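Sequence design from tokenized structure. All designs in this work follow the same two-part layout: the structure record, then the generated sequence. An example of the structure record is given first.
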């Protein structure tokens, strides 16, 4: 459903992505893994239109995204949770969530004025904190808020960049449960950059290994063996 064909990306004169090919299956959870600096975040930002690519194509269900801006890609149903906690610290939890409503309405033609209840079923803690400032939440709660905000636009594809970085284990568990639930119950396609092997194995159905700006191995998760781990992941 998402096909990335021969993309090249440069920061100034430094090339990061090299003729990168990647196929993401619809309804799957695909983990993109690789050492620091492999280009994982650069790849996700290129998919989202936050970085220009020099050549190649990115197709969502056969439609090319490369001429669409980042906002347009969100309207097309791609939700993105960037690396780090991407929330507005001075806005309340409710205000942070409401930011997604115009995108949902533009995307679906609805006129929703309140935050879909589903978000609170997935992350009950947010309901109890609606009037708190985002910046006053714990790191794990901020990450839940960032994921909730991406979900408000009711995406077809959810892209997460290391959502568990620096987060307490019980919240890592909850985030994993939410990803699995949305995938199983709604067929949400998930692209997950993940460094933690245990989490990747629990949640991921497929893996793609990245090294030096290319995909060097692709298979279903049960085939992520020690040899590949040693070659591409061990530090
Ligand atoms: N804004 C930038 N300008 C120049 N180089 C960058 C920039 N962001 C990242 N890089 C470089 O691109 C490479 C890939 O980075 P990144 O995509 O963040 O890797 P990963 O997410 O796999 O750790 C690294 O060598 C990094 O130093
Ligand atoms: Mg990164």
């Amino acid at each position: 459903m998402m096909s990335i064909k021969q993309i090249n990306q440069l920061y100034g004169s430094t090339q990061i992505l090299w003729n990168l090919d990647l196929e993401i299956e619809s309804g799957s959870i695909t983990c993109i893994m690789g050492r620091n600096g492999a280009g994982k975040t650069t790849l996700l930002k290129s998919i989202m239109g936050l970085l220009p690519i020099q050549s190649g194509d990115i197709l969502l269900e056969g439609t090319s995204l490369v001429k669409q801006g980042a906002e347009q890609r969100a309207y097309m149903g791609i939700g993105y949770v960037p690396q780090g906690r991407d929330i507005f610290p001075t806005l309340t939890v409710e205000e942070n969530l409401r930011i997604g409503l115009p995108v949902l309405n533009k995307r679906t033609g609805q006129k929703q004025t309140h935050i879909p209840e589903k978000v609170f079923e997935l992350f009950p803690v947010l309901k109890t904190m609606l009037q708190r400032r985002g910046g006053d939440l714990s790191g794990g709660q901020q990450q839940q808020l960032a994921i909730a905000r991406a979900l408000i636009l009711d995406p077809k594809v959810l892209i997460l960049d290391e959502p568990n970085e620096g987060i307490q284990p019980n919240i890592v568990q909850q985030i994993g449960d939410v990803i699995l639930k949305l995938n199983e119950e709604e067929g949400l396609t998930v692209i997950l950059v993940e460094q933690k092997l245990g989490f990747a194995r629990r949640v991921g159905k497929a893996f793609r290994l990245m090294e030096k700006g290319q995909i060097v191995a692709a298979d279903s998760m049960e085939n992520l063996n020690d040899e590949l781990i040693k070659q591409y992941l061990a530090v």
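Strands lie at 2-11, 14-24, 29-33, 55-60, 63-64, 78-81, 157-161, 189-193, 206-211, 214-220. We note this feature because it recurs in several other targets discussed in the main text.
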